[in-house]
Amino acid sequence: MTPSDHPLDAALREADLIHDGAALDAAITRIAAQLDLALAGTRAVLLTVMQGGLPFAGQLATRIRAPLLLDYVHATRYRGETSGGELHWLHRPRIALQGQTVLLVDDILDEGHTLDEVRRWCIGQGAARVLIVVLCEKRHGRGVGLKADFVGVEVPDRYVFGYGMDYHEQGRNLPAIYALRT
Predict the structure, then answer these.
(1) Among 25, 110, 116, 166, the one annotated catalytic
(2) Most buried residue, 50, 51, 79, 110, by most Cβ within 10 Å?
């Protein structure tokens, strides 16, 4: 297989650029400032939802001035596919969440099934407050009613990839967000 035959290359040829790196950088800086106001200098647990939330959470954490504890959760419904199934837990955080403010950081709020289950789990662990922080959000009316507390950008109701979101487990490292043409 030559590099030009790679499935990600083909997807990029059939995709539209939705948000470039500069727009995402500005959105992350804005969210960090909003979080600093919301936290008012109090410590929080920044809980990255792996794997998609990693690029966003890494950039976000470096811009928050409030003290942070860093941990992650790995729960997935996609497993390399383009549509979700049953939630599968791969890792739960090691930091005790009892009494903590938790920043649940993920790449996207789509229908919200995964984030809602992880949020409920955090509350069940005794978190004092769980704030949902997403790089992007799809607005389409098919969700579970979960609302993010902090949103970077909106994306169309199409399959999106880049900046943490994958196209068949590839493209998470792209510095922009793309959407497949319908």
Answers:
(1) 110
(2) 110
